Amino acid sequence: MALALSMGDPAGIGPDIAIGAWLQRREADIAAFFVIGDPAVLRDRAALLDVELPLIEIEAAAAADAHFAAALPVLPVRCARPARPGQPNTDNASATIEAIRQAVRLTLTGDADGVVTAPIAKAVLYDAGFLFPGHTEFLAALAAEHLRRTVRPVMLLVNSQLKVAPVTIHIPLKEVTGQLTTEAIVETGQIIARELKARFGIAAPRLAVSGLNPHAGESGALGDEDGEIVLPAVRQLRALGVQAIGPLPADTMFHPEARASYDAAVCMYHDQALIPAKTLGFHDGVNATLGLPFIRTSPDHGTAFSLAGSGDARPDSLIAALRLAGQMAAAQSGRRVAGDA
Ligand SMILES: NC(=O)C1=CN([C@@H]2O[C@H](COP(=O)(O)OP(=O)(O)OC[C@H]3O[C@@H](n4cnc5c(N)ncnc54)[C@H](O)[C@@H]3O)[C@@H](O)[C@H]2O)C=CC1
Ligand SMILES: NCC(=O)COP(=O)(O)O
Questions:
Q1: CA 129, 7, 31: angle at the middle one, nearest 5?
Q2: How many angstroms does the Cα of residue 121 sit away from the middle of ligand 1?
Q3: Where are the domains of the chain?
């Protein structure tokens, strides 16, 4: 079986990095994957990049494995309009979304090993009526439909230096305090601890939980949430058998000695988690969604419209995402795939 790679915004660097990852498939030792997207966009982008791209249109995911060594397999989802690099078009939003849907469907039916997503431009999809803040929340909704229960997705950023997850995800900063609850922190911590064991082979995961306010509230002088919301969550996690410490001041929990004391950091909001993640490992960074009934990884960067078709978009983060998805699939099934140590 192969991994399903949704094409992302066709005007962004998704096509460039998909081509780049396939061209490096041997030296990068990545598991087989197929793109769900528009073959014409990939052909045009390869021509613009001046690279030779053998591409094969497939009718079913099952055909991907057999072709992957010789050609980039593509399960067609065609764009409504020609994709112009760097010029996103809301008319193509439905193809972007359909590619994600198909990747999830094929993974849930067992026809693909996992979902890997190339970047979407959120504002472009919002303009086309997309109701979810990002992939993470959309994938959770698809998972909830499948499982017939609510699903809490956890956005785990992974690079060689750090694993870190925000509890609240894509919400305005002014709404963080209202949405941050002890229950949300506990659920997030439990999901991380469970999946670090199951998917990352960490037998006894240690979590470091950040505070919300400067200096984790400075004993309440700089905010009540650390004592009233975060501390009870850390205590509950410990009572549930999860090794957790905190609330820690977020500004001093990411230096090398601090990072050595935990396996994953749990932060209270998006930038508190993503700034250290992207600063410490932008090009080897992967965004993995935990808490889903399927594997999902993604490069940690966005659509980088100004780089589309330029030849300057590095495929490294996508390669890291494909490798991690391959390793997670192997851990899930107990078999070895490319990318294992
Ligand atoms: N998983 C996803 O679908 C994600 C989507 N986005 C979306 O991407 C759009 C653009 O977001 P930005 O904040 O500008 O972030 P961005 O990651 O697209 O770009 C940030 C900077 O990094 C550079 N960069 C990004 N990827 C690169 C690569 N592979 N090689 C070399 N340089 C690279 C860009 O040129 C830019 O200077 C937004 O609409 C955002 O919502 C952002 C992050 C993740
Ligand atoms: N900042 C990370 C990001 O935007 C990724 O979001 P998602 O589309 O993977 O939910």
A1: 140
A2: 9
A3: 1-153+290-341, 161-280
